């Protein structure tokens, strides 16, 4: 034989699958007996291996090694293991394999030993109220651990309990719950609790139950309604921005939902918009408030018509109903009100200089409380200049003193005062009124010539002009433009002089004919533009100087003339008298100082019993410091050679380079009548000379002198020695001077 045919497996050694029911209670239980075709009596050893034998779970199956019987030793659970695959072996007594290993499969047959289980104990669903029948809400589902290919796991669903209405149904196969009939109303029943059941064996086996909770969602199918038709409230007059009261409503829809929120409207009774109504978001009630102050004397009660509706419109399925209306009656309660100044501020005008006691106005307030009898009194709350008097009962304002310009209490020509009005109620109330008084300018000042003196060249057409100015203490329009003219009382002046307008405040004085040098007094008439105009005749002191080539005054003459212009004989006498008095005082002071120094040399401290405070010496002569340089030039006394007719004046370092020096010497007056001109020329030269003080720059003095004319204080006792003095009297002055007495006594 070239090819060996395939070995045929013995039928006795091929073991078909063995079925055994789970939960078999007769243990041990013979499952099968295996047998080898090569069996020799007492010569074959059988064995099995696999799960349930030598693998977990151990000990479930066993075999008789001599007979080949396989036994079940424990109850099986199909839900844990639905089949076992084992291997069977046949050996001889020597351990030699007689047969190839064969498979032994044990199938666990299912029994209905497991109840269905819902996936959750409570199922929750939602559906809007009024939903149509057949609207599905939710699905409940359960599981069964038994064999799904058998009726042991064939489940059927049902509703065991849902109340008397029977509003829902369930699909027995899928567990889907849907509405069964119309009429779901959240306001009637908002939650439905259903008991659902799942049963295996197609509804005839084991069962289990669960809860299905269905919530009805609210829709706006109920309009809000007032709890009553009329509401009464009360509010104080003059109160604004306050709540008056509430109107109460009821809505069957879900509280807090948009279908529940109310919206209020005032339909009638408030044409001026004095009231407003809003919704309280917590209670859904209407809150009435006052927007504008109410006046009890004008209107003491209001009757408002208020409507209410939802913010969200009603559903079309909701039953039609008219809009809810209510009447709100508001009474305005009378209270004490503060007085009122109808004209505030009160503006009046008063002429400047109005005499004291003149009535200027009556400033009164009115009391809004016309239904109450009250008396008003008045007082000045603010009168910074103490210019006014106020009648406390009539409110008449009078002047206490003259109201004059200028004043620190005027602001732009206005004087501000405050008037207080107070009633006599309990508690009293007051009001403040502002009294603005315009002080009208009166033309009570004539213009003043500024400056009242000047210098000009005495040659017509070449420097023979002088710019004149004027000032006026009155305010516009009682001041400029000013009118300058030569005095009409002296028509002869027009032959030599003329005045032409320069601008509104200045004029130009011109020489018409060549005039000799010297001072001139010109009477001028100055007039302002007030109503009525004020005019005044004033003297203009003019010094005519010799003209230079360019038409201006020569420098020296200009200085002298400038200093002398405008000085009258009275002023000259005052200057001379003051100079003589200063010289006398200086001489007396020097003599007194010399006498005291002589007395000190004879014994300064011999009067030991005198109080030291009585020995303070007064020295009237203190020398000339920087501030006294304009009184007299002490350099002329110390260095007379510098001021000789041939000497040049010393140059100051602070003097401008372009400044000229005055011409010297000047001719002495030939007669006493020329003394005034001589002094005036000297003053003008001193004022115009930049080489001597005063000058409006920082003064620099190179030469500070050789010392004071008075002796130093240290020289008082410099000629005396300690031996010449007796200091024992110091011990009598007290404990503070005893130490000095010990040192010098």
From TrEMBL:
Gene3D superfamilies: Cadherins, TCF3-CBD (Catenin binding domain). Its main location: membrane. The chain crosses the membrane at residues 569-591. It is a single-pass type I membrane protein. Keywords: Calcium, Cell adhesion, Cell membrane, Cleavage on pair of basic residues, Glycoprotein, Membrane, Metal-binding, Repeat, Signal, Transmembrane, Transmembrane helix. One of its GO terms (biological process) is cell-cell adhesion mediated by cadherin. Residues 643-676 are annotated as: Disordered. It is found in: Cell membrane. It comes from the Eukaryota. InterPro entries: Cadherin, Cadherin-like_dom, Cadherin-like_sf, Cadherin_CS, Cadherin_Y-type_LIR, Catenin-bd_sf. GO terms for molecular function: beta-catenin binding; cadherin binding; calcium ion binding. Residues 12-118, 119-226, 236-341, 342-449, 464-554 form the Cadherin domain. GO terms for cellular component: adherens junction; catenin complex; cell surface. It holds the Pfam family CADH_Y-type_LIR. Cadherins are calcium-dependent cell adhesion proteins. They preferentially interact with themselves in a homophilic manner in connecting cells; cadherins may thus contribute to the sorting of heterogeneous cell types. M-cadherin is part of the myogenic program and may provide a trigger for terminal muscle differentiation. This is Cadherin-15. It comes from Orthonyx spaldingii.
């Amino acid at each position: 034989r070239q090819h060996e045919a395939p070995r045929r497996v013995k039928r006795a050694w091929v073991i078909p699958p063995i079925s055994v029911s789970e939960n078999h209670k007769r243990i041990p239980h013979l499952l099968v007996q295996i047998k080898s075709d090569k069996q020799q009596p007492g010569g074959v050893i059988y064995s099995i291996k696999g799960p349930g034998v030598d693998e977990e779970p151990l000990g479930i199956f066993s075999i008789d090694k001599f007979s080949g019987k396989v036994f079940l030793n424990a109850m099986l659970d199909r839900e844990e293991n639905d089949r076992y695959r084992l291997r069977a072996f046949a050996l001889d007594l020597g351990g030699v394999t007689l047969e190839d290993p064969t498979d032994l499969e044990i199938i666990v047959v299912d029994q209905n030993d497991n109840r269905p289980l819902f996936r959750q104990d409570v199922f929750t669903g939602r559906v809007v109220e009024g939903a149509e029948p057949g609207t599905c809400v939710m699905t409940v589902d359960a599981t069964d651990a038994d064999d799904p290919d058998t009726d042991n796991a064939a489940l059927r669903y049902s509703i065991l309990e849902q109340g008397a209405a029977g509003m829902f149904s369930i699909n027995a196969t899928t567990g889907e719950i849907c509405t069964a009939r119309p009429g779901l109303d959240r306001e009637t029943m908002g939650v439905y609790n259903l008991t659902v059941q799942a049963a295996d064996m197609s509804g005839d086996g084991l069962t289990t139950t669960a809860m299905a909770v269905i919530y009805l969602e609210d829709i706006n199918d109920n309009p809000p309604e007032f709890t009553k038709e009329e509401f009464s409230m009360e509010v104080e007059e003059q109160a604004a921005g306050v709540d008056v009261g509430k109107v109460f409503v009821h809505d069957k829809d879900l509280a807090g939902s948009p279908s529940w929120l109310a919206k209020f409207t005032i339909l009638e009774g408030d044409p001026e918009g004095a009231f407003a109504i809003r919704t309280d978001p917590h209670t859904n009630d209407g809150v009435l408030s006052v927007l504008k102050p109410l006046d009890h004397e004008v209107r003491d009660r209001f009757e408002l018509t208020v409507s209410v509706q939802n913010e969200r419109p009603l559903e079309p399925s909701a039953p039609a109903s008219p809009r809810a209306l209510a009447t709100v009656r508001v009474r305005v309660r009378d209270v004490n009100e503060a007085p009122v100044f109808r004209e505030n501020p009160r503006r009046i005008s008063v002429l400047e200089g109005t005499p004291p006691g003149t009535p200027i106005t009556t400033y009164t307030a009115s009391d809004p409380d016309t239904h109450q009898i009250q008396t008003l009194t008045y007082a000045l709350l603010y009168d910074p200049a103490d210019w006014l008097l106020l009648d406390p009962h009539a409110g008449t304002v009078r002047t206490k003193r003259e109201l004059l310009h200028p004043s620190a209490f005027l602001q732009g020509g206005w004087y501000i005062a405050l008037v207080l009005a107070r009633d006599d109620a309990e508690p009293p109330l007051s009001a403040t009124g502002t009294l603005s008084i315009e002080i009208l300018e009166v033309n009570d000042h004539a213009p003043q010539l500024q400056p009242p003196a000047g210098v000009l060249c005495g040659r017509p057409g070449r420097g023979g002009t002088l710019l004149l100015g004027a000032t006026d203490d009155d305010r516009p329009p009682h001041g400029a433009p000013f009118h300058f003219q030569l005095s009409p009382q002296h028509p002869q002046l027009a032959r030599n002089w003329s005045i032409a307008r320069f601008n509104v405040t200045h004029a130009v004085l011109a020489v018409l004919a060549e005039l000799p040098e010297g001072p001139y007094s010109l009477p001028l008439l100055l007039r302002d533009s007030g109503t009525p105009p004020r005019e005044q005749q004033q003297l203009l002191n003019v010094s005519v100087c010799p003209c230079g080539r360019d038409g201006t005054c020569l420098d020296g003459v200009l200085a002298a003339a400038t200093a002398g212009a405008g000085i009258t004989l009275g002023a000259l006498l005052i200057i001379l008298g003051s100079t003589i008095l200063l010289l006398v005082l200086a001489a007396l002071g020097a003599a007194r100082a010399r006498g005291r120094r002589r007395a000190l040399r004879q014994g300064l401290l011999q009067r030991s019993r005198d109080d030291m405070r009585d020995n303070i010496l007064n020295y009237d002569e203190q020398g000339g410091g920087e501030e006294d340089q304009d009184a007299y030039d002490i350099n002329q006394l110390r260095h007379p050679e510098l001021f000789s007719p041939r000497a040049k004046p010393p140059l100051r370092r602070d003097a401008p380079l372009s400044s000229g020096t005055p011409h010297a010497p000047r001719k002495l007056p030939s007669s006493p009548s020329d003394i005034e001109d001589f002094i005036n020329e000297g003053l003008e030269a001193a004022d115009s000379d930049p080489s001597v003080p005063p000058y409006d720059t920082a003064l620099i003095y190179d030469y500070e002198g050789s010392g004071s004319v008075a002796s130093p204080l240290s020289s008082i006792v410099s000629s005396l020695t300690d031996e010449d003095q007796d200091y024992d009297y110091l011990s009598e002055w007290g404990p503070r001077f005893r130490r000095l007495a010990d040192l010098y006594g």
